[in-house]
């Protein structure tokens, strides 16, 4: 076999293994629905944890006052301050600040991480303007968005089940993360109460509902991926508490850990998983989300370089570095519309130190990006269909016009246009006529606002 024929063979094989024909997507959606039932039936009944959030009321629009939120979920965290004006006025003022997390803190100690976060929060509180006055004698209240799997003990406490997305701090597992944050705030003399602990998907659901009354589910496509939705409380067999007055309970699916024999997995995915910080876990997340997409592309390029001299003799040294090709760069490559693919050429030179790439090499790279993104976006659409099916909202019965709105957030959804468009057209392909009653909205920073709203509705002063 000639070298180029070998390149084409690797590409073709990869494309076939990543294939997501409609019939396969329906199997994935059905498997998602089945696992949702299993996860709701009993603790540990499924790979899908289907965690009870203790959020049984979503925002109404009447929430009032000054509240803070803290969003910890990936490489950055955000602190947020909102002044809620109540009915009709809604968000009167909102300010935020983004702070990056030094990598050593992602694998250090619980105390060091939470001290760092509390410190940044305290500095942000210190910038509170005179116009935002807290009634005298009142403690500031915070909604804590913590986007890792947590076993909630109440709406404002919960223990970490495991880290994901590159975090690995052993001693936090099993600890109450609200307790850890509160201790860190105390250590630096910041007087603030955590009124709600929420996952980012739950926060996005709350933020989405605040703006659109028909929002019933939220999906995060960022560094990782997850979803939350509103379930009927009586459809949660593992819930032994009192039935909430609303009759509803928000479920944090933790769908990043979904896995099914119907998922199209390749040798590259297996390699990525085996060398990850959490082998065998978060398999769905590892083929869908922003942390991993660029890395899958890098692995395919490595094989082409090794076996088919794709970049000339030998493997370019930079190409051997795990995670060197990040998803935003991959997105720039994928969206290059110039006829000689100059953005692809420039990225190859800047990131991988590969100068003078030929047009046909560049085209293959764009093709690999397309295969990886189509698979991720189409599977995301199938997973959303799984939720709609669970709620019986995937078909139109007797011309019924019940709207189902899904609030989406996360950097991947927000910035990767081809991912977003592919997901949307796949949803249309899967839903047919029922697509009319389903809409996807971008809930910009829904998780931060959502956490502040949930802090307001769980305030100690109500
Ligand atoms: P998190 O998920 O950590 O809370 P975000 O929702 O902001 O944070 O998502 C960040 C992720 O979004 C990044 O890890 C990256 O994978 C993806 N992302 C950010 N910018 C872009 C971009 N321009 N194109 C594609 N993906 C992007
Ligand atoms: Mg986030």
CATH architecture of one domain: 2-Layer Sandwich
Question: How many strands, what sense, and barrel or not for the largest sheet?
Answer: 6 strands, mixed
* Helix share bin: 40-55%
CATH homologous superfamily designation of one domain: ATPase, nucleotide binding domain
Using only C-alpha atoms, the radius of gyration works out to 23 Å
Brief overview, please?
The chain has 462 residues and is an alpha/beta fold.
Structure description:
It contains 14 helices and 13 strands. The model has no long low-confidence stretch (mean pLDDT 96). It has helices at 3-17, 22-41, 110-125, 177-187, 200-211, 267-274, 283-288, 293-308, 327-334, 342-352, 359-390, 411-415, 417-431, 446-457, and strands spanning 51-52, 64-72, 76-85, 91-100, 140-146, 150-154, 157-160, 192-198, 215-221, 225-232, 248-252, 404-409, 438-442. The protein has a domain at 56-210 and 445-455: ATPase, nucleotide binding domain (Nucleotidyltransferase, domain 5, 2-Layer Sandwich), CATH 3.30.420. The chain is of the alpha/beta class and 462 residues long. The structure holds adenosine-5'-diphosphate (ADP) and magnesium ion. Residues 11-210 form the Hexokinase N-terminal domain. This is Phosphotransferase. One of its GO terms (biological process) is glucose metabolic process. GO terms for molecular function: ATP binding; D-glucose binding; fructokinase activity; glucokinase activity.
